[in-house]
Amino acid sequence: MAGQQRVLLGVTGGIAAYKSAELVRELTARGCEVQVVMTRGAREFIGAATLQALSGRPVREALWDAAAEAAMSHIELARWGDCVLVAPATAQCLARLAHGLADDLLSTLCLATDAPVYLAPAMNRLMWSHPATRANCEVLASRGVTLLGPGTGAQACGETGPGRMLEPQALVAAMLDDAAGAGALVGRSVLITAGPTREPIDPVRYLTNRSSGKMGFALAAAARRAGARVVLVTGPVALAQPPGVERVDVETAAELHAAVHARVRDCDIFIGAAAVADYRPRDYVGEKIKKRDATLTLTLDRSPDVLASVAALESRPYTVGFAAETCEVEQHARDKLVRKQLDMIVANQVGPGRAFDTEDNELLVLWPGDGRQTFARASKRELAEALIALIASRSGCAAATVAS
Ligand code: C5P
């Protein structure tokens, strides 16, 4: 992590809270400014005076503290942090964050920040392996929250198993290395399109498709985790913004085209994962169309091919397209790769329960010169990680330290 970083350190009510003092020392020794935020439960385990003395800043505890809010409101505090580390993060804390609760200062900060959030879980082994905690961790990870640990070993309750908070030194090293972008795309900039487009017919109707945006969002999160600066241009979707990613919302293919071309010159890699409508109504009817006749004919015009237009730029980024096909997947994808002059195409078979709006997918990736790689069925998150690693290495963008 370059320069001095501001760390919001959340401390929740677990026995491992006694290690938070050491954590503050470790962070400040690495040049970080630390603002401690304790929950009510944490106060049962460690005194605010200790953390205040070590961090050199008054510990924040309550959401409804008029004096503290006047000095720096909780929203300003959320903006202040370059990252949030919650250590220890209890099972209760994971559940609150997974559900987006904002009924105390720490949970509110976690909701009000777009900085990376790191959680160091610490709890009894059965609480850790309980399906409720597993599900909460899944949700948090899918939103781009990084879970550090827990480790396995002897627990304060006398049991042995997973649930021990990682040691402060290991935690700080893992967080700072990650925040420094130890990934393959450090210093690179990636532009990604995602989701469907909507092409209006009249004020209440539009043409669209079944794309959920999940793959594009997973790619944006994975590229960010790999250290890239990421801009995500997305059609209308119901997905949470991956942390640390700049999001640009658009509706139509024309808007998507304009948003991409306003930003494409600065990027090293372009990934067109959006399901852009190929056709749009020629005429937008200003009033709701009435059902008068037995049939209605809409004239549709081709919309701009965003991907092909990026690939055609004189100075173009490494350009990756997607191909959703219902049959002869490989042949259609290879044709598209050549016709649009792409550097890589990612193909998948679509149909009932396949690819669109699913959690899982399987992919076939092709590149010029008969390049070919398949990715077996896996979650979109896992596929996105693997795909970003492949794109980083094939594009020559992979950071020298991690190039394969
Ligand atoms: O030709 P087809 O629509 O199947 O190509 C799919 C690929 O092209 C996807 O990467 C999609 O994002 C992109 N595309 C585009 N603009 C369009 C149509 C498709 O960028 N108008």
Spatial extent as radius of gyration:
24 Å
Overall helicity: 25-40%
- Mind telling me which CATH architecture of the largest domain this is? 3-Layer(aba) Sandwich
Averaging pLDDT over every residue, what do you get? 91
Which strand order does the major sheet show? 12-11-8-13-16-17-18-19
CATH topology of the largest domain: Rossmann fold
Please, what is the CATH homologous superfamily of the largest domain? CoaB-like
* Strand-residue proportion: 15-25%
CATH level 1 class label of the largest domain: Alpha Beta
Number of strands: 19
What is the helix tally?
Answer: 14
Distance between the termini: 23 Å
Give a list of the ligands: cytidine-5'-monophosphate
Major β-sheet annotation: 8 strands, mixed
Low-confidence stretches: 400-404
Structural class: alpha/beta
**C-alpha geometry:** elongated
Number of folding domains? 2
Task: Give the key terms.
14 helices, 25% strand, elongated, 19 strands, alpha/beta, binds cytidine-5'-monophosphate, 404 residues, eight-stranded mixed sheet, disordered C terminus, 2 domains, Rossmann fold, five-stranded parallel sheet
